[in-house]
Design brief:
Blueprint lengths: L1 E6 L4 H13 L3 E4 L11 H13 L4 E6 L3 H7 L7 E3 L3 H11 L3 E5 L5 H13 L6 H16 L1
Parallel strand pairs: 1-2, 1-3, 3-5, 4-5
Helix pairs in contact: 1-5, 2-3, 4-5
């Protein structure tokens, strides 16, 4: 599994934690920044990462900003991306099992580093359940194909 990772200035500390987790898990990843605490624009990081995941260059992506909201909104503008904003472990598991999400967004100003690691680990290790959930995802894909 190959992971694309990025944050804006509001998520650099948790991004460091997630980088450590990915290394501990032995997962291949690429960090797309940012590398400063000076204000930057989250779409400049979310959109390129989402495009890399949508193209298949990376299997999954993880984005962090202050709240996770801007990153998730931006990523979900890219056709084929299902990015979930998650701040609890139950939702991390459910969004993989039910929604087959390919991107995860979190907010550094909302959760701490320990919880962020637990969420990311759960999200990365949970498989998609398929079954009745596939019909629902097909409806989303059909809409994307007609309108985007």
């Amino acid at each position: 599994m190959k992971i694309a990772l990025a944050s804006d200035h509001g998520g650099i500390h948790i991004r460091e934690e997630i980088r450590g987790l990915l290394e501990e898990m032995g997962l291949e990843y690429e960090d797309f920044g940012c590398d400063c605490e000076t204000s930057v624009d989250y779409p400049d990081y979310a959109l390129p990462v989402a495009e890399k995941v949508a193209s298949g260059e990376f299997d999954k992506g993880i984005l962090i900003c202050g709240t996770g909201i801007g990153m998730s909104i931006s990523a979900n503008k890219v056709k084929g991306i299902r990015c979930a904003l998650v701040h609890d472990v139950f939702s991390a598991k459910a969004t993989r099992e039910h929604n087959d999400t390919n991107m995860l967004a979190m907010g550094e100003r909302v959760i701490g580093a320990g919880l962020a690691r637990e969420i990311a680990k759960t999200w990365l290790t949970t498989d998609y359940a398929g079954g009745r959930h596939a019909r629902r995802l097909d409806k989303i894909s059909d809409y994307e194909n007609k309108h985007l």
